[in-house]
Structures are given as structure tokens and as C-alpha cells.
């Protein structure tokens, strides 16, 4: 089945220790997104790529970076995680060419910062 | 700036007890209102997109409607497996690219 895959599902890191979260897709969609979702909160968009064009949300901290080496893969790098960065990180994809252009989400990576 | 407000925050229903969830929005040029379902520990799952006032869409026990200021998700004769958080999101002219602006969701619990 075509899908959005996130690895790892659970990640524990130490305060200030860099961490990388991975997302891959078999849908061949142009657009890939990274969201941060804290407990009982709305998913908050961090940034998205349209192909290789990077779009950063204005309030995304500099501590968060992203890479998209090819259509299938996208990475979220947190350079110096703080306790406030503990959250679920959701990757999503979409294809502007389909009628609703809905976003397809992966299962998420839950990040714990000790 | 877009505002999306969902109510109630939490809702408990008995199996078979129909109800509605509300999503109020303030946007600059709506380009779509989306409903998603999210199960605990999982990513959101797409349900519906609505584009213009008066539009309605149905899927099994769910029916979504749209006015110029709000959307409703009607749940008819719910079953325990409908228990989840239901998220509303908007895409508007003020969003960057194809981004969605989500509400906090309504947590629905359906008891047998």
C-alpha cells in the first residue's frame, strides 16, 4: 500500500543533543510537510517543501531544520532539543494535482527530551 | 490571521446517541475546510473537504456541512469505534503555499 512512513516511532534524546527524524513516502507527492503536535493541541506547521522549494513558517524556531534530498525522503533536524520540544512530530504529503489536495499523514514520531 | 475554533473540547455519547461537532473559522479567502479523524498515537486520517457554503458530504455515519462562518460534523447513531479526536483545518489565501491551519480538535468518546 502507498503510504507515509516515519522512523523512528519513538525517539528519546537528551537536552541539547541533536536528533534527526525521518519521513519517507511511496505516494510520489510533490509536497511534504512537517508538523509539531503537543498534547491536546492542534498540529502546528513547521515548514513544507514543494519539490525542492523550501517554505519555512515565520514562527518556526531556528533550532528546527529540514532536508529533502529527493522526492521520497524528508528529514527533520532538531539541532539542540529543549524540554519544550517534546511532542509528536507528524510528516504529511499532498499532491496539488488531485481535486481535494488533502494531506496524507504518517503515524508520527513521539519525541521525548530528558 | 486565520482562526479555527472547535467545540466542544470533549464529548461523551452513548452508542446510538447522535450529535454534532462544531468548527468555527475566520479566514481571509477560504480555499477549503478539511475534517480529519485522529486516533491516539496516530497521524490524522482525512475525512472530508468542503469548499463553499451550503456544501455537504457524507461518509457512513458522518456528515459534514459548511456555512460562511462554521462547519458541523454530524455523527448519526455513533458506535464505539467512532471514538477519536476530530480535527478541523482550513486552507486560505493567507496560508503559505498549501498549508493547513488546524483547530485543537474535539475528543469524542462513544460508550456501549
Describe the structure.
- The complex is a heterodimer of chains A (114) and B (112).
- By secondary structure, chain A is mainly beta.
- Chain A is 0% helix and 51% strand.
- In chain A, a hairpin with a 2-residue loop joins strand 5 (44-50) and strand 6.
- The mean pLDDT of chain A is 93.
- In chain B, a hairpin with an 8-residue loop joins strand 9 and strand 10 (101-102).
- Chain B has no helices and 11 strands.
- Classes of the chains: A mainly beta (114), B mainly beta (112).
- Chain A binds chain B through residues 4, 31, 33, 40-45, 48, 50, 55, 57, 90, 92, 94, 96, 100-108, 110, and chain B through 4, 32, 34, 36, 41-46, 49, 87, 91, 96-105.
What keyword list fits this structure?
heterodimer; A: 114 residues; mainly beta; 7-stranded mixed β-sheet; 4-stranded antiparallel β-sheet; 51% strand; globular; B: 112 residues; 6-stranded mixed β-sheet
SSE topology:
The complex is a heterodimer of chains A (114) and B (112).
Chain A: E1 4-7, E2 10-13, E3 19-25, E4 31-37, E5 44-50, E6 53-56, E7 64-67, E8 73-78, E9 87-94, E10 104-105, E11 109-113
Parallel strand pairs in A: 2-11
Antiparallel strand pairs in A: 1-3, 3-8, 4-5, 4-9, 5-6, 7-8, 9-10, 9-11
Chain B: E1 3-7, E2 10-14, E3 19-26, E4 30-38, E5 45-50, E6 56-59, E7 62-66, E8 70-75, E9 84-92, E10 101-102, E11 106-111
Parallel strand pairs in B: 2-11
Antiparallel strand pairs in B: 1-3, 3-8, 4-5, 4-9, 6-7, 7-8, 9-10, 9-11
| H/E series of chain A | EEEEEEEEEEE
Low-confidence stretches of chain A: none
Structural category of chain A = mainly beta
> Strand count, sense and closure of the main sheet of chain A?
7 strands, mixed
Low-confidence stretches of chain B: none
Q: What gross morphology of chain B would you assign?
A: globular
Largest sheet of chain B: 6 strands, mixed
Brief summary:
The complex is a heterodimer of chains A (114) and B (112). Chain A is 0% helix and 51% strand.
